[in-house]
Design goal:
heterodimer; A: 201 residues; mainly alpha; 3-stranded antiparallel sheet; 7 helices; 6% strand; elongated; B: 245 residues; 4-stranded antiparallel sheet; 8 helices
């Protein structure tokens, strides 16, 4: 997440001081990504150093108000215009965990998948309920939170579908190994590896 | 000798269902214990062949278990004759199937009123209740349409209206969104959720995580056994931590 661009975008709206920026950011993103006030000030310092924002002075109550510069506005324009960069490929702890699990002997992959599935479905239940409750008494400020929830729902759903696929593939492989007799893996796992638990008989 | 409390609409106690005999016998369900209370929405997930649909058929008295017992509103189904079972199904249980099982020569309202009329309710009263059910699923204006004059999503709503018409306390749904686009599918979930919130016990069989997530509890079946359950935490602080960003 780019705090730098987010703060710039909020300053393009109107000049603000640090605490205002933090509150405004959290309001608009459903408080999903709580901002540390220290992060806000550090980022403002850097933005000022890079001449993207400028101090307007004191608001009379001791707050230092910042405004955006023309160079800052150009950055905001570019940020909105460009697609978000994907880390290539994005780091995914679950994928890494499963990739390692299938290649190590004595690891019950199916148990890992099922434990993750229960946790993911539970999260999906919570997101779905939060979405339902938010949509039921929707206020203008909730639009952003609904978008964030939708995104979380899609991501979690994709994760569960992927787990289903992993599991189906494990079962297929185990069955092929059991019927074909030939070991295709080179990891030294025996045919009675946990993967086979579901394809007995 | 039911052990149900007053709020338990459905109870499966050590239920097993085996098809075939001897060496070719296949156990579709083994020792399944499951209770659904009034106001509770339970989703059943599992890979194909895990016993989901068998479970639903037993819950609704469409099939009988080879072992264990099924209670609907404290009534043991095993003790009922065919006629009594049929009456219980018409009065207390509503089904939604993947293929809608609607009668093409009847209008939407007539399809919805059908189970009530079969049960002896007067035509006028049945149609009043049918109109109410069609309103609940959001299509009161389609009451006089025939099935070939409706979209798949609309037909599915008629099928749901038929499942909830009258005072049905147990709603059973088997992949009810199969043929529908995702927006319409969500509409189906909204109706099922609303029925549960109004006090019905709802059991949904689905392989769609997105739909299962509407349930209060998700039950995972594998090889005919319940292997896990997930209940929503409903903890907003947790929600934010999970977002983890």
């Amino acid at each position: 997440m780019s705090i730098r661009h987010s703060l710039l975008a909020l300053l393009q709206d109107q000049p603000r001081y640090g605490y205002q920026l933090r509150v405004e950011f959290e309001n608009r993103t459903g408080a999903t990504w709580p901002l540390n006030i220290g992060q806000v000030y550090t980022t403002l310092d850097r933005l000022e150093r890079d001449a993207l924002v400028a101090k307007e002075g004191d608001d009379g109550e001791g707050h230092v108000v910042y405004s955006i510069t023309p160079a800052g506005k150009a950055q905001v324009r570019n940020w909105f215009a460009a697609p978000v960069e994907r880390n290539n490929p994005p780091r995914n702890e679950l994928a890494i965990k499963l990739a390692l699990a299938v290649t190590l002997p004595g690891v019950d992959v199916q148990a890992i998948i099922q434990a993750q599935r229960v946790a993911s479905i539970r999260a999906l239940q919570d997101y779905t309920k939060a979405r339902r409750d938010t949509a039921a008494n929707q206020r203008a400020t909730d639009t952003a939170w609904l978008l964030v929830l939708d995104s979380l729902i899609f991501q979690t759903e994709a994760e569960v579908r992927w787990l289903d696929l992993c599991e189906a593939r494990m079962v297929q492989q185990a069955q092929a190994a059991a019927t074909g007799g030939a070991r295709k893996t080179s990891n030294g796992a025996t045919e009675d590896a946990p993967l086979n638990a579901d394809s007995r008989r | 000798m039911s052990v149900q409390g007053p709020q338990q609409v459905l109870e499966l106690a050590k239920v097993g269902r085996t098809f075939g005999e001897g060496a070719t016998a296949v156990a579709a369900l083994r020792d399944v214990d499951l209770t659904i209370s009034a106001g509770e929405f339970v989703a059943v997930m599992g890979p194909s062949g895990s016993g989901k649909s068998s479970l639903l058929a037993l819950a609704g008295g469409l099939d009988r278990p080879t072992s264990g017992a099924v209670y609907v509103e404290s009534t043991p189904l095993a003790g009922l004759g065919l006629n009594e079972l049929a009456r219980l199904r018409r009065r207390a249980v509503g089904y939604v199937f993947q293929d809608f099982n609607l009668v093409p020569t009847l209008t939407a309202a007539e399809n919805v009123a059908l189970p009530l009329e079969l049960d002896g309710t007067s035509t006028r009263k049945a149609h009043r209740q049918a109109a109410d059910a069609l309103r609940q699923v959001g299509i009161p204006e389609l009451a006089d349409r025939f099935m070939d004059q409706m979209s798949g999503g609309q037909q599915q709503r008629v099928a749901i209206a038929r499942a909830i018409v009258g005072k049905r306390r147990l709603i059973l749904a088997d992949e009810p969104t199969g043929a529908l686009d995702s927006t319409t599918g969500q509409g189906v979930m909204e109706v099922l959720r609303a029925r549960a919130d109004a006090g019905a016990a709802v059991m949904l069989v689905t392989h769609e995580p997105r739909h299962a997530a509407w349930a209060d509890r998700v039950v995972f079946l594998r090889d005919g056994r319940i292997v896990d359950q997930a209940a929503a935490m409903h903890d907003p602080a947790m929600l934010l931590t999970q977002a983890g960003l």
